[in-house]
Write a structure and sequence with these properties.
mainly alpha, single chain, two-stranded antiparallel ribbon, 11 helices, 352 residues
Amino acid sequence: MVQTLASRLRTQSMSEHIEPTSSFLPQQTIVRRTAIARPEASQWPKHAGLFFLTFLSTTFAGIVSAADLEVPEPALSGWLGYVLYIPEYYRRLIAAVLWQAATNPALLKSGLAFSTALLTILTAHEMGHYLACRYYRVRATLPFFIPAPPLFLAGTFGAFIKMKSPIPSRRALFDIGLAGPLAGFVALLPIGIVGVLTVQPGTAPLTGDPIVFNDPLLFQFIAKLGRVDLSTAAPNSWYLAAWIGLLVTSLNLMPVGQLDGGHGTFALFGQRSHKVIGRVAFIAVAVTSVLGFIWHGSPSGFLYTVLLAVMLRVRHPAPERFEPLGRGRSTVAVITLIVFALSFVPFPIFLR
């Protein structure tokens, strides 16, 4: 009888399920847990291939950011010229970068430093989610990395995992949601420290670069402790990788939809408060973005606005059961709020 019951429990498709043992003992429950399946081996080549392509695209982006490239514009005319302009410009850009990488080892080193640092941060973020899923026996894929075109600043659109089974509890939702950004922040912290403390000092504010990166609070604190003047310094590969990592962290910690911050908000306050907080956050970010564009001419705040507008339309599923989070997770929530404050920049980029 016990062996039969155990074999039935092991074959359940759900990783965890709770039900009353009888109708007249409603408070007694049994927890049925099964070992979570390992990632499908057939998908490993896809994960590895996307990671390799993202490594190439981020290395390319790192070289572009470090090199002083002068790419001649295509001299095309007529309607065919308009159609072929972007592909031809991309061809010339790629050729210029490959030539620079082949003839200037320092540029290749900068590109590799950028891609290695950035992928370390993104991998830590996604593996935080993945390992939390494994802990709670939630079926999830390994991270999918998304390469981006050469002209995109980061060389990647980020990474994600797919969860294939329900989240069993409120605690699991909280832990899975916040494990990613906290793990990513821990990984980027030493990279950010090295990046800020090793920037090349200058004697005057930079005026030639059309893109100006606003410094998050974390960088400002590091610069103050290290007596570094970031207003006159040129960003290096480590700085850029950590800066992008902080941008990704702040975006994901927005308390909206199924973003990581949305998971944490749902676990902390429930479904109704999750919706209200998400709408308030969207309105606040939208107003801030408009004011930033009017006062400072910075359109970058709309990045948050567009993301939140999309995520507001995504329904957040409820976990299978609710239980108190406990004092420890309340402390983690406060730490996560501090991480968000250190990472968030209302207007990430200014265009001269």
